[in-house]
Amino acid sequence: MSALPNNGPRFSADVCVLGGGPAGAAAALRLAQLGHRVCVVERGGPRSTPAGVSLPPSVLPMLDLLGVQRTVAAAGFLRPSPALVHWHGMAQPADAAPGLAGFQVDRAHFDRLLLQAAQGAGVQLLHEAALQPQRQLQAQADGWSVPLAGGGHIDAHCVIDARGRRGTAQGPRTVALMARWHRGAADAVFDPRTRVQASHEGWAWLAPMADGSTVVAVFVDAQRCARLGPVDRQALHDQLLAPLDLLQPALKGCSRRPVQACDATPRSVQDAAPQPGLLLVGEAAFSIDPLSSQGVPAALRSAWQAAACVHTARHRPAHAALAWQFHRQQSQRTAQRHQHLAARFYAAAAQVSDHPFWHSRAGQPAPPSDAAAWPGLDDTIALDSRARWCDLPVLEGEWVVARDALDHPALDCPVAFLAGQPASAWLQALQGAPRLRDLLDAWHRHFGAATTQAIWPWLWQQGLLQART
């Protein structure tokens, strides 16, 4: 696939995507699949951070929707399951709940796979030594003009900005001290499982890679390593790792490469006056706490939704404002939801540790999302008090539309349909707070036993329903 030239007066595309990370590549791929002319402007040069990423099983449906699950599976990434976790309050390390395995990927390799898939779908790729900052994007009557560092411009109807971490810090600043470890001794044992362990003043994550190396990140308060030079930074990394008995066995016989300090602070862009046709996706819109372990899935979901917003605005101009509203709302709720999820882990640690690292990040965690014990057949069932039913922009296939939809803090986005039926049809049976046996009988009659057996547990486990004895 030919690349755009990096000089000349002007070039054109329906959509210009800035940044070729997971969010940018996924957005470009999806838009190309929807028939748009897309170009990606990617910063040149190799990735310098020793980045390994755990992709949890929740990423698999999104990879499948993008059509790249087989490509990722064939890339030779590790698929370790389960992880080893030792958190505050646990007497012994424990295996995470068994289930589908995700992927343990090298970020640079994973990003290349997504970009190659986008190019295969017809996306044009331009490598730039540097990308001009957002303030130099120029709004035009029919779109945007994107200035290129190498000269020239790209005229595009819409711009998707996926150039990575920015925005306002949400809470105390956190730094990840990251290093790649390589096996050196002949008796070094390679264990493919991911490991997570909390300590008195932070926490650490260990991820084996398919090449036999291991990526380790130690997360501490930014003030702890402020103004440290390379030597002192490496000494702090090793000092913080030393007491972590869960991680140390996996590093036996390994040698460490230089340590790098990377910003790991959750951030969010709170734009009071968003500009139509300019969408921030992935970490350009929000970067979630690494403790939630959902960074890449959240980025891919953000990209998928942004592509639907652009597609709607281009082909249904009357719904453009609705599409931009949906994008803003989804970015904000995703950032808030993951902030609450991480706060629950910090709050749990703060109960057994008096270190400021934990207490300053605990905040006000959201109520646990784990459902209560299953109700009895004679318990009355009602919609959870935090749920609301109203007219909202929702994602319906490749379009953003206005629908009567069910919204709840536990949901990634409002839900207008359940198992192909309007959500309102399911909720009608809740009128009058019926007993569970009567509710299930009504759903069986209207939707069938198999559908009811699939939807009822999901509604309960998400916390959308509550029981009254």
Distance between the termini: 64 Å
Q: Rounded to an integer, what's the Rg over CA atoms?
A: 24 Å
Shape: globular
Please tell me the CATH architecture of the largest domain by its name.
3-Layer(bba) Sandwich
CATH topology of the largest domain, which one? Answer: FAD/NAD(P)-binding domain
Strand portion, in percent? 25-35%
The number of helical elements comes to 12
* CATH class wording of the largest domain: Alpha Beta
How helix-rich are the residues, as a percent range?
25-40%
How are the SSEs placed, and which strands pair?
Layout: E1 10-18, H1 22-33, E2 38-43, E3 52-55, H2 60-66, H3 69-73, E4 84-86, E5 94-95, E6 103-106, H4 107-120, E7 124-128, E8 138-140, E9 143-147, E10 153-161, E11 168-169, E12 174-183, E13 195-199, E14 202-208, E15 214-221, H5 230-241, H6 248-251, E16 254-256, E17 260-263, E18 267-268, E19 278-280, E20 286-287, H7 295-315, H8 320-350, H9 356-362, E21 380-383, E22 388-396, E23 399-407, E24 417-418, E25 421-422, H10 423-428, H11 436-447, H12 449-461, E26 465-468
Parallel strand pairs: 1-2, 1-10, 2-7, 4-13, 10-19
Antiparallel strand pairs: 3-6, 4-5, 8-9, 9-10, 11-18, 12-15, 12-16, 12-17, 13-14, 14-15, 18-20, 21-26, 22-23, 24-25
Helix pairs in contact: 1-4, 1-7, 7-8, 8-9, 11-12
